[in-house]
């Protein structure tokens, strides 16, 4: 009773914290403000939370090697963003007779992603699709994008320096062509 009187005097709420303790433990607080702060903390935690999405990459059994390399780089980008990736090989018509080709393709991709990704679900046939799910390997950190742009700018400066001697060679070649073009004219005049 005394705690209720104190709460009314201070214009606060009496909240029971631990009802099973002897004597029960209560706390004086503004309950509306407490609920508001809890909701604010939950919203803040939700903003900082990264939701993992499942991305899908589809291929055919006869996909060319270069295209597989491009798709493998795309898988690495998805993994760097923290997403899981479902890699699928789609079979149509006569391709259905050779599921081993699709399995070799998925095994090759898994070998390429070794150290970067872990296989959550190994390749399995689902109707006309053979698919596997990969996720980011624990401890793997993607390369920083700034480092990649610095490296490309260095490569561009190297290309510029290597291209300059070629330009002088081209001007020398042009003068040599002019000289040979003028020589027959001189011989015709004599």
TrEMBL record:
Occurrences of domain Translation initiation factor 3 N-terminal (ranges): 2-45
MF (Gene Ontology): ribosome binding; translation initiation factor activity
Quaternary organization: Monomer.
This protein's record includes keyword Protein biosynthesis: yes
Parts of the chain that traverse the membrane: none
Annotated compartments: Cytoplasm
Function: IF-3 binds to the 30S ribosomal subunit and shifts the equilibrium between 70S ribosomes and their 50S and 30S subunits in favor of the free subunits, thus enhancing the availability of 30S subunits on which protein synthesis initiation begins.
Domain Translation initiation factor 3 C-terminal: 52-135
GO BP of this protein: ribosome disassembly
Protein name: Translation initiation factor IF-3
Gene3D superfamilies xrefs: Translation initiation factor 3 (IF-3), C-terminal domain, Translation initiation factor 3 (IF-3), N-terminal domain
């Amino acid at each position: 009773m005394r705690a209720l009187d104190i709460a009314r005097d201070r214009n606060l709420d009496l909240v029971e914290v631990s009802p099973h303790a002897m004597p029960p433990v209560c706390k004086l607080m503004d309950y509306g403000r407490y609920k508001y702060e809890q909701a604010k903390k939950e919203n803040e935690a939700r903003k900082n939370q990264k939701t993992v999405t499942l991305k899908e990459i589809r291929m055919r059994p006869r996909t060319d090697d270069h295209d597989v390399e491009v798709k493998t780089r795309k898988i690495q980008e998805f993994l760097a963003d923290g997403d899981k990736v479902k890699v699928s090989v789609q079979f149509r018509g006569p391709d259905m007779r050779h599921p081993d080709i699709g399995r070799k393709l998925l095994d090759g991709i898994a070998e390429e992603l070794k150290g970067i990704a872990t296989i959550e679900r190994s390749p399995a046939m689902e109707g006309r699709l053979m698919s596997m799910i990969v996720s980011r390997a624990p401890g793997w950190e993607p390369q920083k994008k700034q480092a990649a742009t610095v490296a490309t700018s260095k490569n561009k400066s190297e290309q510029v320096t290597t291209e300059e001697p070629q330009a002088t060679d081209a001007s020398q070649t042009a003068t040599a062509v002019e000289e040979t073009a003028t020589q027959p004219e001189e011989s015709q005049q004599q």
